[in-house]
């Protein structure tokens, strides 16, 4: 998914309200960051603060999602945690370094937002959808 197309669609819903609400908010935050990068008055501080806010939001969401998976005894929790850990411990730090080195330039922000959009949409449609399937029929997963 390209960042220009980063709109919530019902296909992204997994049927777990707390997770769906968090994902919808994530999409809104990304859209606001995209809008900010397209405005000429944007400055480095605003981009940096927006990225920090998004990072904190995603990390908080991961924790909520992980708590939910534990509460339902989600069988594939270790696999799912590994995906979150890749984002937390590898992708985000690398992107933050890249952005800082480039002064939160428009080009660096676009790359960051595109990477984030691709990762989160694939993650929702793959790994997060499996949470809903497990909740619906835990014996089959």
What is the average per-residue confidence, as pLDDT, rounded to a whole number? 83
Fraction of residues in helix: over 70%
Largest sheet: none
How many separate helices?
4
Structural class by secondary-structure content: mainly alpha
Order of SSEs, N→C? HHHH
Number of strands: 0
* CA gyration radius, whole angstroms: 16 Å
- Indicate the proportion of strand residues: under 5%
Shape: globular
What distance separates the N and C termini? 28 Å
Give start-end ranges of low-pLDDT stretches. none
Brief synopsis:
This protein has 141 residues and is mainly alpha-helical. It is built from four helices and no strands.
Key words describing this protein structure:
globular, mainly alpha, 4 helices, 141 residues
Explain what you see.
This protein is mostly helical. The protein has helices at residues 17-38, 44-71, 77-101, 106-136. The radius of gyration is 16 Å and the shape is globular.
Set out the fold topology.
Elements: H1 17-38, H2 44-71, H3 77-101, H4 106-136
């Amino acid at each position: 998914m390209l960042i220009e197309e980063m709109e919530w669609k019902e296909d992204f819903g997994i049927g777990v309200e707390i997770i769906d609400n968090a994902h919808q908010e994530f999409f809104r935050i990304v859209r606001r960051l995209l809008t900010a990068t397209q405005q000429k008055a944007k400055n480095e501080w605003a981009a940096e603060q927006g990225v920090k806010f998004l990072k904190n939001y995603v990390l908080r969401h991961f924790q909520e999602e992980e708590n939910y998976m534990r509460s339902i005894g989600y069988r594939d929790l270790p696999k799912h945690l590994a995906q979150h850990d890749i984002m937390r411990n590898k992708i985000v730090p690398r992107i933050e370094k890249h952005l800082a080195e480039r002064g939160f330039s428009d080009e660096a922000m676009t790359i960051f937002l595109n990477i984030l959009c691709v990762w989160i949409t694939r993650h929702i449609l793959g790994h997060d959808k499996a949470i809903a399937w497990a909740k619906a029929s835990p014996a089959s997963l």
